[in-house]
Amino acid sequence: MRTCLLSGDWKKAYKMSEFQSLRAVTLRAVPEYSFNDLKFRKAVPNSVLVNSFSALRTVALNSGTGNYVSARSSLRQPLTTLLFIIVLLIGLGSPGVILAQDTSDDSGLEEALSGFEEEASAEEEEALSGFDDEKDENGTDEEIESTDEEESRERTLLSFSGSAGLSASYSYAKDAPADKTQADWSGLTKLRPYFSLTWDAKLGENWKTRISGKAFYDLAYGMKDSETFSDEVLSELEKEAELREIYLEGSPFGNLDIKLGKQIVSWGVANSLRVVDVLNPTDDREFGMTDLEDIRLPIAMTKLDYYIGDLKLEAVAVHEIKFNKSAPFGSDFNPSTQKINEVIPESSAENTEYGLALIGTFSGWDASLHWAQYFDDTPHFKITKVTFIPGLGAVPTLEQRHSRLTMGGATLSIPSGNFIWKAEAAKLQGMEFALVTDKTFSRTDVLVGSEYSGWSDTSLTLEFGVQHLNDFDVKLEESPDSQLEDRIATTVSFMQDYINQTLHLSLVGMMIGKSGQDGGLNRMSLEYDVMDAFSVTGGAMLYQPGENAYFQSLNENDRIFFEARYSF
User: Fold this and answer.
1) Helix (H) or strand (E) segment spanning residue 123
2) How confident is the model at residue 464 (pLDDT cuts 50, 70, 90)?
3) Taking a C-beta distance cutoff of 8 angstroms, is the pair 347, 374 a contact?
4) For every residue of 160-205, which 3-state class applies, written as one string?
5) What is the mean pLDDT of residues 293-302?
6) Residue 124 phi/psi, 5° resolution?
7) For 477, left (φ over 0), alpha (ψ -120 to 50), or beta?
8) Mean per-residue pLDDT for 511-518?
9) What is the dihedral of CA 84, 101, 99, 364, to 10 degrees?
């Protein structure tokens, strides 16, 4: 699990924690929100699964969605709540020793390039020993030039890594539509071969670069009548091929690092809810089903890191305006019945986003301070026109816009025995809403949590997050804002390894509201490492509808899933 414990050389050993956001937006005539982007780390030997949940995203729903829940929901809510409790009890009763170590987003690059800064082997030294010798009396300039070229090639080191696999999911709770012209989200919902490739290179002594990409094609849509699916669904979910990280990183001076290009910057110490981690957008297209490695979306940035003893000063300029990938219109994770226009600010010098962080490791604890000025990934509504329709009255025309926010926050992580205690807090200013236009609002986000690792190959994590909308106006409770003064989320995860850390069990529960009354989910998975490079995973996702309209719309989205993955 992420501990945000920092030690040794900052420039080589620094590892940021993984976590995801806590956001709040509602649509139409019902108060709704969802903790989006449930994230799960794929377990590898000597690691644990990291699950993350990020936050409250927009969904347009009709009035009366609360009646959507079927009779089976009334039975499943107590069952899922019971499962949530069982997860906690299993953790409290499990014997063992250590929490397995996790890795950061940059760990793959660090691992791939770990040998670049190591001393050369005896054979290499022998092969290169003559490069610095003076030429003998019979040597020629051509021979020296040839030797220099060989030495230059030795200094430029390349590596390729990636993965290939097949992921599938089956929706057992949904029935096929009676109307054959409607999209069928029952049965097989995913049969997706995928491929990813990463190229890393070290350029000289102080510079390195990375280019990575991924592609997939989902066969499930072709196995059904693809014409019944919306254009947005086919465009977003049937196939995809894109470049992800593309950057150049180096150290022009002793204490200064620079990183230019499409990259990911992770802030904070939490595993689940995003508080200070606000710079990178996330992939929200399949709530709870996206793996951690694919959740964050790289964007074009310039990042400077300056090291002063045990402190790191980080400055970031974001040049690309890009927001969360939402579930496309017409998908089973987007219950909207109408499209609402979204205004996207252009990527320009004027709209550049900025971030500053001061991160330090001290004796027995670590802390950080964060500031950012950015566009909110989650849009708010703006009423652009009101039309009076006989029989319906005043009907507003809505538009989705993104507020320019300012965030100031801090994090703290303190290890104590088998526990790691952690906290995050942030204040966001500049929030806008449709029904109150004469002022902007601020919001205070707080998260506290603990990780316990006192059992063998086992970890138990509990995190609690609150969003408080300051100076709350009761008008905001009405549609289309549908805001609450306080939003609460609790997450608990239990991870355990078996059979010499080749079999990995993950149980995750999330509840929204003080007692889970607003909804939640439970995810169970089991991963087996068949060999070092090949693993298979199977599990189930159960959604708890509760009183929240968005989670009610997920009532029949329960599914089982499977994945086979080969890494190289």
Assistant:
1) helix 122-128
2) very high
3) no
4) EEEEEEEEEEEECCCCCCCCCCCCCCCEEEEEEEEEEEEEEEEECC
5) 91
6) -65, -40
7) alpha
8) 91
9) -110
pLDDT tens digit sequence for 135-153: 444 445 555 555 555 555 5
Q: Which of 119-128, 405-414, 478-487 has the lowest mean pLDDT?
A: 119-128
The mean pLDDT of 194-201, rounded to a whole number, is 97
Give the integer Cα–Cα distance in Å for 308 and 160. 33
Closest CA to 37 of 523, 566, 562, 433: 523
CB atoms within 10 A of CB 231: 10
Burial class (CB in 10 A: 0-12, 13-18, 19+), 21: buried
> Is 563 within 8 Å of 536 (Cβ atoms)?
yes
Q: 């020993």: which residue's tokens?
A: 129
Tell me if residue 228 falls in helix, strand or coil.
helix
Give the mean pLDDT of the chain. Answer: 79
Pairing of strands 290-291, 39-40: parallel
In this prediction the pTM is 0.73
Going along the chain from its start, the domains and CATH numbers come out as 10-115+152-567 (2.40.160.10)
| Ordered strands of the 51-52 beta sheet | 51-52, 39-40, 290-291
Of 123, 108, 112, 139, nearest to 42 by C-alpha is: 108
- The three-state secondary structure class of 118 is coil
d(CA 329, CA 341): 12
Task: Name the 3-class secondary structure at 378.
Answer: coil
> In degrees to the nearest 10, what's the CA dihedral of 295, 298, 302, 305?
40
Estimate to the nearest angstrom the gap between the alpha carbon of 327 and the chain centroid: 15
Non-local (6+) Cβ contacts of 170 within 8 A are 187, 188, 189, 559, 560, 561
Residue-level pLDDT at 149 = 59
More confident of the two residues 108 and 243: 243
Q: Which two tokens stand for residue 388?
A: 């009076």
Which among 5, 3, 6, 18 has a CA at the least distance from the CA of 267?
18
Which residue bears the tokens 């694919």? 294
Ramachandran angles phi, psi of 366, nearest 5°: -140, 150
CA pair distance 31, 512, nearest whole angstrom: 13
Is residue 357 helix, strand or coil? Answer: strand
In angstroms, the CA 270 to CA 286 distance is: 22
* Gap between the Cα atoms of 298 and 41, Å rounded: 18
Q: Are 282 and 36 in contact (CB under 8 A)?
A: yes
Residues 6+ apart with CB under 8 A from 306: 255, 256, 257, 312, 313, 314, 315
The alpha carbon of residue 500 and the mean position of all alpha carbons in its chain are separated, in whole angstroms, by 29
How far is residue 140's CA from residue 129's CA, in Å, rounded to a whole number? 18
pLDDT surpassing 80 at residue 533: yes
First to last CA, the chain: 24
Q: DSSP character for 477?
A: G
d(CA 95, CA 75): 32
Q: Which two tokens stand for residue 305?
A: 């890191």
